Amino acid sequence: MTEGRHAVVLGAGIAGLLAARVLSEHFAQVTIVERDIVEGTGVRRGVPQARHLHGLLDRGRTIIEQLYPGFTSELAGRGATTAEALVGTRWYVGGLRVAPTSTGLTSVIATRPLLESVLRQRTLATPGVRLCEGVAGGLIGDADRVHGMTVSGAYGAQAHAADLIVDATGRGSRAPMWLTALGAQAPAEERLEVDLGYASRMFRRIPGQLGGHSSVIISTGANGRGGGAVRVEGDRWHVTLAGMLGDHPPTDPEGFAAFARSISAPDIHDLVTASEPLDDAVPHRFRAPVRRRFERLAAVPAGFLVLGDALCSFNPLYAQGMAVAAQQALALRDCLAGGAATDELPARFYCAAGKVVDDAWQLAAGADLSHPGVLGPRTLRTRLTNAYVARVHRAAHVDPLVARTFLRVANLVEAPTALLHPRTARRIMLRGNGKAATVAELGGQTFADRTPTLIEPTR
Ligand SMILES: Cc1cc2nc3c(=O)[nH]c(=O)nc-3n(C[C@H](O)[C@H](O)[C@H](O)COP(=O)(O)OP(=O)(O)OC[C@H]3O[C@@H](n4cnc5c(N)ncnc54)[C@H](O)[C@@H]3O)c2cc1C
Predict the structure, then answer these.
(1) pLDDT-flagged residues of the chain (< 70)
(2) What domains does the chain contain, in order, with CATH numbers?
């Protein structure tokens, strides 16, 4: 069904590709405008974050699978690793290993460039979708309606007419300025200054490392330091170290290893010191998650909407960006099903997208605000929630049902309220009370060393 003639998507990142796929169901022609030359699986200038670990939450994977059937197996066929989360992967929170238990969640582990290249190939194979190289420059229209935009390319600046323009240009989106230039309102912004630093490096994997597990994630502990090591294509460990509030990991080999030693579980340090490095560490600085409140605007012009990181850029520590972009694509699909050509589409989309962003934003902001140095409003609700989450962390270390529910919530597969279900809450209150043993207190042993068998969650 083609209700509109031409939709233009700005940006061929994850959000732009998913949006183009969804729009192709309703528009005869979908043009993706991208400033980079995009081909192969190399890291490109417009997506510098692609050098760093990119975990795809299971909610995102299942939506992508719905839009591109066979996506997971295609990625696996190109070298990605798949594993059941907590069965074939490890996770530490608050210095404690989350109990290894069945979660029903599939982790598909690959570098961001590989993931994006599979999505790009599939999207560009969709009838009506094409890619055009150029830099989006500004909107054409007025405060009521956008008719097109200017794009600079090899032949200078040109005007492109479109029935719908979707801005997926990422965190650096200029949509607020474009809207102001039309005389329309720009959205209010919410930010939480976390001053996060990443440093990432590839290592050659030695068979049997990490007990055969495909990844380990060590969430930032009380000292604001954490990291992850994931087994990506080419039988490599992609190792990312992270530090908050200006305490950034160094990129020189000795400093990188010393930082790995300072985080709350030894697994990553063990990998880094035992494996052959394949490149130099690269840094990335991320100052603040930013949420643009388009859903609160009294009026938005018809013919233009914003999604992905341009709408809400999350703290990368919680790996939510791609999954929420997928949720937004699904929300757009639902809105389009109600009539692509209507002027109400942007407002309807912002309302639906605001709801999907809410859960992820609350989870992330709550975790950020649990670090005393992060400035932001700590309402009574935030403080009570964080006290409860600290119990969840301790209970998840010893209780498989809590571990399973916690991971499913973090993967956006279940709503956060699942942790308040009376059966689960009872276990959280009982088992999250005492201070569970830390790895250090276990004499350097990890939880896996003590409990090699998988525990089935009992209900
Ligand atoms: C360090 C770091 C680590 C991250 N780790 C994770 C993770 O583990 N899991 C996860 O889910 N998410 C992670 N994210 C977030 C994730 O990268 C994004 O949420 C996801 O890529 C969706 O972003 P997007 O497509 O909206 O924007 P992007 O991926 O940034 O893509 C924007 C695209 O727009 C193009 N563009 C920009 N301006 C213009 C213009 N004027 N004209 C034409 N094209 C333009 C760019 O070249 C780029 O291709 C991480 C982010 C960072 C910074």
Answers:
(1) 1-4, 41, 340-341, 434-459
(2) 4-54+111-191+290-364 (3.50.50.60), 196-286 (3.30.70.2450), 380-450 (no CATH)
Gap between the Cα atoms of 54 and 46, Å rounded:
16
pLDDT tens figures, 311-350: 999 999 999 999 999 999 999 999 999 775 679 999 999 9
Q: What is the pLDDT of residue 38?
A: 83
pLDDT, position 4: 63
CA of 321 from ligand 1 middle (Å) equals 8
Question: Is 327 a pocket residue for ligand 1 (Cβ < 6 Å)?
Answer: no
Pocket flag, ligand 1, residue 46 (CB < 6 Å): yes
Cβ neighbours of residue 168 closer than 8 Å, sequence gap 6 or more: 9, 10, 11, 13, 15, 16, 19, 306, 307, 308, 310
Q: Are 34 and 12 in contact (CB under 8 A)?
A: yes
pLDDT at 422: 95
Radius of gyration of the chain (CA): 22
**What does 135-196 look like in DSSP terms, one character per residue?**
EEEEEEE-SSBEEEEEEEETTEEEEEE-SEEEE---TT--HHHHHHHHTPPPPPEEE----E
Distant-in-sequence, close-in-space partners of 426: CB < 8 Å, separation ≥ 6 = none
Best residue for ligand 1 mutational test, from 18, 32, 34, 241 (most atoms within 8 Å of Cβ) = 34
How much distance in Å is there from the Cα of 28 to the middle of ligand 1?
26
Strands 4-10 and 89-93: unpaired
Centroid of ligand 1 to alpha carbon of 47 (angstroms) = 6
Check pocket membership of 166 for ligand 1, CB cut-off 6 A. Answer: no
Instruction: Return the pLDDT at 42.
Output: 79
Terminal CA-to-CA distance of the chain, rounded, Å?
46
64 CB within 6 A, ligand 1? no
Question: What is the per-residue pLDDT for 269?
Answer: 98
* 15 contact partners, CB below 8 Å, separation of at least 6: 168, 170, 307, 308, 309, 310, 325, 328, 329
* 68 token code pair: 């591109």
Residue whose structure tokens are 């999350």: 314
For residues 146 and 184, give the distance between their C-alpha atoms in angstroms, rounded to a whole number. Answer: 10
Question: What tokens were used for 158?
Answer: 């040109």
Q: Please name the residue whose Cα sits nearest to atom 15 of ligand 1.
A: 321
pLDDT value of position 245 = 95
CB 54 within 8 A of CB 111: yes
